[in-house]
Amino acid sequence: MQIQPYLFFDGRCDEALEFYRSVLGAEVTLLMRFKDSPEPPQCTPPAGTEDKVMHASFRIGESVILASDGRCGGQPSFQGFSLTLTVADENEADRLFAALAEGGQVQMPLAKTFFSPRFGMVIDRFGVCWMVLVECREPA
C-alpha cells in the first residue's frame, strides 16, 4: 500500500511541474491532458482548457506525487498539510529552501532545532507548503 499526495494546481500544473523539475530535479513520469481523454469529461472543464493537465505523475527522489489542473480556476489552494524534503546535508537544505522560497513566502527560516541541524518551512509560489529538514544522524 502507498499513500501519494495529489495536488490540484487549478490551471498552473505545467508551470508547477517545470518549477519542480528545475528546482528539485523532479521527473515527470506521466502526463495526460484533458484533450487526450478517450471518454467525455464527467464534469465539463472551462472552455480553452483542453491543453491543461488532466493527470500527471512526477517523482522527486524516491517519492511519487500526483497532480492535475483540476477545474482550472487559477487559484490553487493547499491547506492542512506540508510536503517534507529530507536531505542529507545543510548545504542541500539551504539550496532547496532558497529555491522554493523564490516567489513564495518563508513561514519559518531555516535554523538549527533540537531535532535537526537545519529545519525550515516555506510556502512556494503555488501555495504548496514545504518543510525542509536535514536528516539527523546524531542528537542536534
The gist of it:
InterPro entries: 3_dmu_93_MTrfase (IPR009725), Glyas_Bleomycin-R_OHBP_Dase (IPR029068), PhnB-like (IPR028973). With 140 residues, this protein is an alpha/beta fold. The chain has two domains: 63 residues, Signal recognition particle alu RNA binding heterodimer, srp9/1 (2-Layer Sandwich), CATH 3.30.720; 52 residues, Signal recognition particle alu RNA binding heterodimer, srp9/1, CATH 3.30.720.110.
Give a description of the structure.
This protein is of the alpha/beta class. The chain has two domains: 6-68, Signal recognition particle alu RNA binding heterodimer, srp9/1 (2-Layer Sandwich); 83-134, 2-Layer Sandwich (Signal recognition particle alu RNA binding heterodimer, srp9/1), CATH 3.30.720. The chain contains two helices and eight strands. It has helices at residues 13-24, 90-101, and strands at 6-8, 27-33, 53-60, 63-68, 83-87, 105-111, 119-123, 129-134. A four-stranded mixed beta sheet has the order 1-4-3-2, with helices on one face. The chain has a four-stranded mixed beta sheet with strand order 5-8-7-6, covered by helices on one side. The protein is elongated and about 55 Å long. The model has no long low-confidence stretch (mean pLDDT 92).
